[in-house]
Each structure stands twice: as C-alpha cells, then as structure tokens.
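User: Some background: our group keeps a shared notebook of sequences we're curious about, and every so often someone picks one and asks for a predicted structure to add to the entry. Today it's my turn. The entry only has the sequence so far, pasted here. Could you supply the structure so I can complete it?
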Amino acid sequence: MSPTEVIGHADHGGRSIRDEGADGSASFGHVALPGVVDTQKGDILYLEDISVSFDGFKALNDLSLNIALGELRCIIGPNGAGKTTMMDVITGKTRPDSGSAFFGQTIDLLRMTEPEIAHAGIGRKFQKPTVFEKHSVFENLELAMKARKDPFWTLRAKLTSAQRDAIGSVGERIGLANEMEREAGLLSHGQKQWLEIGMLLIQEPAVLLLDEPVAGMTDAETDRTADLFLELAGEHTLIVVEHDMDFVNKIARTVTVLHEGSVLAEGPMQDVQNDPRVIEVYLGR
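Assistant: Of course. Here's the predicted structure to add to the notebook entry:
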C-alpha cells in the first residue's frame, strides 16, 4: 500500500493532508508512513461495539462512535464512564474484548502497536503535561519533531530552515513565540499544556486526543485554549475529553455523553444539556 495520506474533506472541501518527500515518497509531516487514511465517506475514526472488561468491571459496553474528518468532538461523562478507556483503545494501550476500531475506512487500529498508531497520525495528550523541563521551549519542539526519526540520524542532523520555520510557526500558534528560549520548567502550568499540544502539532497528526486539557488553567489560559482548539478544528480532528462545562460550552459542536461504557446521548450542547438522562447521571450532580 502507498505511504499515508488523508484522502477526504477536512474542511468539506478537497483538502489532502500530505507532503511529498525528495524521493517521491509521501509523508505525514516529516515521516514516511504505511497505508492510506481513507476518509472519502466523511469520517476518520470508527469505533463499533467496543467492549472492555477489567476484573469483571465493564469499562466499555458495546461502545460505537464515529468521528468526522476535521471535527471537534467533546466527550463528557461522570467518572468511570469509560472516557479514558476509549482513548486507550484508540491509541493501542488497551485491547478490547470485542468490537472494531478503524482509522479511516481501512486501517485496523486493533492490529497495530501504540507506536504504529502514533506514527499513522493519531496523537494523544494526557491530563498532566509531560515536557522536558530542563530544555527550552524550542528544544522541546525540536525533539518532538525528531521523535520519529532514527536515533542515529537525530544525533547528527541539523535543522533545516524549513524545520526552524515550522517550529517557529507552532510556537506562534500555541502562544509561546516569546518564550522559545525559556526553560520549559519555568513555564506556567497552562503554558506547559500548550507546549505539549505544540509537541503533538509539530508531528502533524490527523487526530488529536486531548484529555482534560484545561485542568488547572487560569480563566485567561482556558479562553486562549478554547481559541486554539477552534483554530485547529478542520486542520486536524480533535477529540476533547473534559469535565469543565464552561470550556465545553465555548468549543462544543457535537457532544457525546458516555455513561457506564456506552453512549448515553449525543448532539449539540444545548440538546445534551436538556436531556433528562444526562441531567440525572451527570450534569445534575
């Protein structure tokens, strides 16, 4: 199969997320990848009848979920609803007992390892930011850019002007353009969250999984993050798991509510907020 490209309609046009290498091979960002992410039917991620049990507890119960290319989807629900397990399945950390998970029409995520899934274009940000605190913001982005390269190459390669421009562009987008030489450990909590998002963006994933991205942020940082996510939607597909309902209100287009490992409700935020079932199990608490 040919190297990866996203075939579909990221902004409901004919946008193809693809670069061409000097040798003619296709690449996603800066790394050549196997397979083609076929999104011609409009969706980039398919979960169908996914079930996961841990010691008799059913974390996911026949969960089915489709995510459209370029969509910004918010996933909410009470603790224990299955949100983290869902992300673990998508990223290959957890293997389901049953069901199927596809990236596009043809890429079977359940046959892939965690690194393979990351290389294919699915990036994940955990709740607690993980950055190289003794390195500068620029160096963190540089390391993330080279993360998929051969280690021998990484030790010897120098950044091209195009790579430096890409790092600068990401720094600007995440609001850290004036902090590029600052040690990451000296950043505020919110800035560290943005840096980790930037470390994903520099690898140009098709799908971003974001776990409680505004936890611990100030109001101003939360507002800036909302603006960032709205900017990224369309260029990337965002799946945001969050408990902060004010934040979800700011960014929500479609909201999925999980409860006891299944989809309880799904739709526009206003409809979800008014759903008696959602009020009973989550919002009314």
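Suggested note for the entry: The chain has a mean pLDDT of 85. The first strand starts at residue 6 and ends at 7.
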